[in-house]
Amino acid sequence: MANKIIKAIQLIKPDAQVSVSGEDIDSIVWENGETPIAKADIEAKLAEAEQAIADEAQAKIDLKASAISKLVAGDPLTEEEANRIMFI
Q1: How far apart are the C-alpha atoms of 3 and 22, rounded to whole Å?
Q2: pLDDT exceeds cutoff 70 at 88
Q3: Helices 39-73 and 4-12 meet at what angle, rounded to 10?
Q4: Which of 29, 35, 37, 40 has its Cβ near the most Cβ atoms within 10 Å?
Q5: Whose CA is closest to 16, among 1, 32, 3, 27?
Q6: Mean pLDDT of all residues in the chain?
Q7: What does the alpha-carbon distance between residue 43 and residue 49 come to, in Å, rounded to a whole number?
Q8: Is 28 left (phi over 0), alpha (psi -120 to 50) or beta?
Q9: Each residue's pLDDT tens digit, 50-82
């Protein structure tokens, strides 16, 4: 599962270079001279981050289901669908 703290940081600054130990917001390491983001700002994004992670997981499930449905019906797959069922 994706780390919700990293996802929250990416929602604020998509190219942020950070690492986190587990789900401990106090363990954030700002890499390569990255300017730290305020803890309160990150915490404010956690719910949105959790939803984004859930949405991404559901999108993968939906894509796989779409690919399987097309295979059963004999319809052509998109490249993204083919990749999803090949790399499940």
Answers
A1: 8
A2: no
A3: 100
A4: 37
A5: 32
A6: 91
A7: 10
A8: beta
A9: 999 999 999 999 998 998 889 888 889 888 888
